[in-house]
Amino acid sequence: MSLEGHGTDATSSEIKTTLSYTADASKLHVEGMSKSYPDIEEDVTGNLGSSGLVLSGGLLGFVFSRNLATLSTGVLFGGALLALSTFSLKIWRQGKSSLPFILGQAALSAALLWKNFQSYSLTKKVFPTGFYAAISAAMLCFYSYVLISGGNPPPKKLKSSPSFAS
């Protein structure tokens, strides 16, 4: 009976390793250690979701309250976050750094967090100000993580294999 096998155990934010193991513990072999970075598609999905939430919240808030401040805040912050995440993806696909766009999104999330936290402190209403403050705090933490981990590296170019004439 043989206890030989191969296994991979890592998440997208950890160092990925491949382990080969046998019944003898002295023959442990570790292959291909490489650090992975945050995935830009995950960034954009989160960015589009949060910016869409802010934008649609501003529009719905205006429909129910007829308050222009709600509409302008939702459209300005949500639209700006949406534009920055779209430009970030476009620039990243060209192989350039999207750091300025990430910093812009972090700044807008911090401003939105500050505004909604102040409103929540005054009104103690969990929805919508407390909810938006929590979403903004989560996105600010996410942008901080992206910046601390080194940002989003440019996409890897596929190398064409050399063809040999026979």
From TrEMBL:
Keywords: Membrane, Transmembrane, Transmembrane helix. Its main location: membrane. One of its GO terms (molecular function) is fatty acid transmembrane transporter activity. It is found in: Membrane. It comes from the Eukaryota. The keyword Metal-binding does not apply. The chain crosses the membrane at residues 68-87, 99-117, 129-148. It comes from Quercus lobata. It holds the Pfam family Tmemb_14. GO terms for cellular component: chloroplast inner membrane. PANTHER family: PROTEIN FATTY ACID EXPORT 1, CHLOROPLASTIC, TRANSMEMBRANE PROTEIN 14, 15. Belongs to the TMEM14 family. The lineage of its organism: Eukaryota, Viridiplantae, Streptophyta, Embryophyta, Tracheophyta. The keyword Metal-binding does not apply. This is Uncharacterized protein.
